[in-house]
Amino acid sequence: MSEAYLGNPNxxxxxTPVKFTKEQIVEFQKCAxxxxxxxxxxxxxxxxxEGLVPFKMYDFQKTIVNxxxxxxxxxxxxxxxxxxxxxxxxxxxxYALFNPNSNIAILANKSSTARxxxxxxxxxxxxxxxxLQQGVINWNKGNIELENKSVIVAAATxxxxxxxxxxxxxxxxxxxxxxxxIAEMFFSSVYPTISxxxxxxxxxxxxxxxxxxxxxxxxxxxxxxxxxxxIEVHWSEVPGRDEKxxxxxxRNTSEEQFQQEFECEFLGSVNTLISxxxxxxxxxINPTKSAQGVDIYEDKIEGHTYVCSVDVSRGVDKDYSAFxxxxxxxxxxxxxxxxxxxxxxxxxxxxxxxxxxxxxNHAHVLTEVNDIGQQVAEALQFEIEYPNLLMTTQKGRAGxxxxxxxxxxxxxxxxxxxxxxxxxxxxxIKTLIEGDKIVINDFNIIQEMSTxxxxxxxWQAEDGSNDDLMMCLVIFGWxxxxxxxxxxxxxxxxxxxxxxxxxxIEQDMAPFGFxxxxxxxxxxxxxxxxxxxxxxxxxxxxxx
Length: 544
Description:
The protein has 18 helices and 26 strands.
């Protein structure tokens, strides 16, 4: 009777007796106790130039294996084509063989990618000597089940991929390429599957791709704000890569691509509203409190003035209903609280706005009312009777004007987002952020900044990304430039920023002077002061 699994001579079927020699027993024990020894002596990989060859590990690959082996949580930032998948799957195979009853999940940004990685595990397994193999129970493109009850499954990274399971190891490949909304839902649903154990492992391996969940976990690991052990490999640590190789690679790709894929820099998208250089400078701070979608960065301060900008979604798909609370008492303004949820229903949302904004000294609330935002604003005004709802009214060419308690035709219980409103809001918030006139330390906002790009004549999120929080910022940008905002805050943002640069502006203008056309009124020869506080004096010709 055949001892091969389904006729595959490279696989051992279950219940096949093995007679170990003394040498094999010694080898088995060495392999079980030392993953690196096992990999270097028994793993075979496919080389493009040489075909099937032994896995000769580089020093950095050994460091990765030892780190994974000695820690529960590991995150790796690795350049392209550094053998990261080969290194990790070799460890997974070792774990499955020498740890009975193990459940291992291979998750990637695409299910096809996860199956390809599992295929590498299968290739390595087929080339093991029979005395190292376990009998095979199941063997297909999606999973492996061995006689020692170890199971390896492959799937796309999603909140439902391994829901309900209990896993000893979860391996996330190219996690930076998983959309942020999916990554967030994944962690909220999957983390409980490994948190119950004391030896369970989470392995995250990726090349950077913008500022997303992978970026946050990495930065928190670097700053020791989580339990992940960070491992970074520079492209020059890979044998055969030198400055000549770098120049050739850049010539055949681009400088930006090289920086992201080989220098492993967290580059955002190109043509973002907020410059990439500025985004990289913004530090991420964890909120002091979090509950039910609300993140608090600073508690209310008596006597301070707060405003809240609201963007409403239908509560379906990927869109989030969101709001931001700003302390506008003095500059720089601060984002002190945030709310975002893609599950909240519109009829519930007003109650959350009311609860949070009342806590911040009855914050002034401005809601976007293009769609169902109107429903939210009306609920705040008529049902809840929120005391500080900001309204707008139409004023001819001036468009929408901000105020409170307007009445009559053209009055709206919030701001209707138009091309003009969005253009002004984008321009103002860009000025505030890049001029360090507003403090923003929230990860989700910064992530949206990195994907909020120019589309035609407007700005919006890239495909697969969100811009709900960015739209809250845009609303605030427009709000901060309204005359009524100056009444609320007793500040003039434009004046303050102008005054800081006034000396430079005056220096630039001084060499040119002012030319008198010879037609003037003597009564107008006195100095004048404009709305920004600058004193102007009439220019005169020599001899006058």
